[in-house]
UniProtKB/TrEMBL annotation:
Pfam families: HTH_Crp_2. The lineage of its organism: Bacteria, Pseudomonadati, Pseudomonadota, Alphaproteobacteria, Hyphomicrobiales. This is Crp/Fnr family transcriptional regulator. Residues 149-215 form the HTH crp-type domain. It comes from the Bacteria. SMART domains: HTH_CRP. PANTHER family: CRP FAMILY TRANSCRIPTIONAL REGULATORY PROTEIN (PTHR24567), HTH-TYPE TRANSCRIPTIONAL REGULATOR ARCR (PTHR24567:SF74). Keywords: DNA-binding, Transcription, Transcription regulation. Gene3D superfamilies: Jelly Rolls, Winged helix-like DNA-binding domain superfamily/Winged helix DNA-binding domain.
Amino acid sequence: MPPESAARLETNLLLKALRGPDRELLLPHLEPLNYGKGATIFEAGSPVTHIAFPCEHAVVTLVITTSDGRSAETATIGHEGAVGGVVSQGYVPASTHAVVQIAGPVLRMDSLALQEAKRQSRHVRDLFARYSDCMLAQVLQSSACNALHPIEQRCLRWLQTLHDRIGSPVLPITHELLAAMLGVQRTYLTRILRILQDQGLIKVGRGRITILNRPGMEAASCDCHARVRDHYRTVLGAVYDDHGLIAIDQPQPRFIATDPEAEARRRIDRWTGKGSGTRVDP
Ligand SMILES: [Zn+2]
């Protein structure tokens, strides 16, 4: 294991959430790499042989490209997560392109090695199951947002998602990139950004967009981003401060299924009013 892997592990919140022996299961397999902006981690249709953990400020998007050349973002992953082989078993073909949008360091490991670690450790299995659920929530919410909400709100959602992941109000993104993520023409997107700038929410610069008023953005946008954020909080134990996502805490004990059958019974009792605890969402 290269020594920088252990230090770099601290800069991916998902890996950092693992403790002692669970970390030791993954560490020997982690390979440090650096990806430039625009690099492809995997292509749609190709077998996903590795799982990649963005570190520090690196951000990867999962992008669907249609046969007429248009594209749209389906998920945005930064230092809170991982891409590729998160849930699959073996080298399953990818359904999306995984493209690096903000350059940075990445830790990579063979998908089969992760599979083996999940088999050996309930904690590893549990953490990745929770993360997969959160990523699915992000994808599903994006689908609804793209279908139902106006472009201004979709734009604000994506800017907030990015802000949470890089922890800086200065987002190093171009109009071209943002237009591609949202599946709209660049000229149209530029008009939208001008409207948001006139509202005092953002400042548009060359190769970057600066967030000026995050509370204002949240008030002006749909609740899609907030819903996903709440899901990450509840299911994964994600911790946010004013600058974004800063930690993945140990999940709440009531979500740890040490004995799945007993946990299922407890939940049924709570829902049917037989249990003594407060009723919670399943
Ligand atoms: Zn929305």
